[in-house]
Design brief:
With 411 residues, the chain is an alpha+beta fold. The chain contains 15 helices and 14 strands. The strands form 3 sheets. It has a 6-stranded antiparallel sheet, with helices on both faces. A 6-stranded mixed sheet has the order 2-5-6-12-13-14, sandwiched between helices. It has a two-stranded antiparallel ribbon with strand order 3-4.
């Protein structure tokens, strides 16, 4: 799985204003093909701009990427894609829902609005509250117990379950930070490039412990090479103990191979003239974030089990029937890696683990994918067989959460 990034000649400006101008054109009643609803464009713009303010959207995208300070909302307004549009529409819907139905959550969102991860955490809680209530499952948000504010309780078949969401499993590994560094350097080159140098490139990491410092020399060589169009046209290979860079000439055969071939590089890119947001672009490339994270699946499952045990110990005095842990596997078009690429294998492993225990834990993994190739939300409900009546009582969440995505956020 990868993320495609379009590099613009200008990476500065008020990106929310540009976003509005772009989607006003695409939602115009005079457009030949209307992909967006003008009312959704207007509502999303008004809510997002009112919540974060004009100054929040005045930024240099490249600098934010380089310093790893890019807020996920800033990433969404920068990317002119269908999936990014609907993810931003979702954010505006959840902000409005919290403002109307849970003032405490809205207060927390306002207090933490510049903290990207905290905002995503709270929005996940708002989404859960919405999903339970739309499914007709009684839900009590933010109850107090012993002076502590809990996330919520739901009632299944007349019995209470403690609900917690776990959104703290991001695989922000060192190699991903290196991918961000390599990406920023390529973006910088694409922004400053005066003429397109047609060609295709693949960057491979040789081991799992590469640091940003390790890549400095190699990236300097690559940028110098890319600046010489005669060399790019010929292709070539760069290699040291950390990275291997393969360049191929910009022929029809190489472009075809790029588009239909196996994506096994950590970063790949090609040069092309295209137009987005009325600005010329010359460089398009992909950040691959999947294959390394999948290799750590076993560690992830082990970490989840330790977290569940810790939560059980923490809530031993709770009188509810059991606990429901909701985990979000997010691929949200915001330049961060997902928790899992192969969620089906993860679901199988967790289900086997829970089947071997006699706890009253139910785990719901919610796949949330807003990327270029797919846009969906899919819940996976797991637990021991003796909890089957309660798992069945949770099935309406699957419908409510999909209706939320395809109804309240119109596709």
């Amino acid at each position: 799985m990868w993320k495609t990034i379009y590099v613009m000649k200008s990476t500065r400006g008020n990106w929310m204003v540009r976003w509005k101008r772009h989607y006003d054109d695409l939602s115009s009643p005079y457009a030949i093909r209307r992909y967006y609803d003008r009312a959704v464009v207007e509502t999303t713009y008004n809510i997002i701009m009112a919540f974060w303010g004009n100054d929040f959207f005045e930024f240099d995208f490249l600098e934010k990427m380089r310093t790893n300070e890019l807020h996920f909302v800033q990433a969404l307004v920068f990317r002119p894609s269908v999936s990014a549009f609907y993810r931003l529409a979702e954010v505006s819907f959840l902000l409005d829902y919290a403002d109307r139905f849970n003032k405490e959550q809205y207060r927390l969102l306002t207090a933490n609005k510049h903290d990207s991860e905290k905002v995503k955490d709270i929005l996940c809680e708002v989404l859960l509250q919405y999903a339970f209530r739309e499914a007709g499952i009684p839900y009590e948000a933010n109850p107090m117990r012993g002076g502590q504010v809990l996330e919520g309780y739901c009632t299944l078949n007349g019995e209470r379950f403690l609900v917690e969401s776990k959104n703290k499993y991001s695989m922000k590994s060192d190699d991903f930070q290196v991918i961000c560094y390599v990406t920023a350097r390529l973006m910088e080159f694409g922004r400053d490039m005066q003429t397109p140098n047609l060609g295709v490139g693949y960057i491979y990491f040789k081991h799992d412990n590469i640091t940003e410092k390790d890549t400095h020399k190699m990236m300097a060589q690559l940028i110098e090479y890319l600046g010489d169009s005669s060399k790019v046209h010929l292709g070539g290979v760069f290699e040291d103990e950390h990275l291997r860079v393969v360049m191929k000439a910009g022929t029809a055969e190489n472009y075809y191979e790029y588009h239909v071939g196996k994506k096994d590089a950590d970063v790949d890119f090609f040069f092309k003239n295209t137009y987005e947001l009325n600005e010329k672009q010359n460089l398009i490339f992909n950040m691959h974030v999947g294959h390394r994270n999948s290799a750590r699946k076993k560690d992830l499952v082990d970490r989840l089990m330790r977290t569940l045990k810790k939560a059980r110990d923490q809530h031993k005095s709770d009188t509810s029937r059991g606990r429901i842990f909701c985990i979000f596997n997010e691929f949200l078009n915001d330049f961060q890696p997902p928790l899992l690429v192969d969620s089906e294998e993860f679901v199988k492993d967790v289900s086997q683990y829970l089947a071997s225990k006699t706890t009253d834990d139910i785990v719901i993994l919610i796949d949330r994918r807003f990327n270029l190739s797919e846009t969906f939300i899919k819940p996976h409900i797991m637990g021991h067989d003796h909890l089957l009546p309660y798992k069945r009582a949770l099935w309406p969440i699957d419908y409510s959460i999909r209706r939320y995505l395809y109804g309240k956020v119109p596709f």
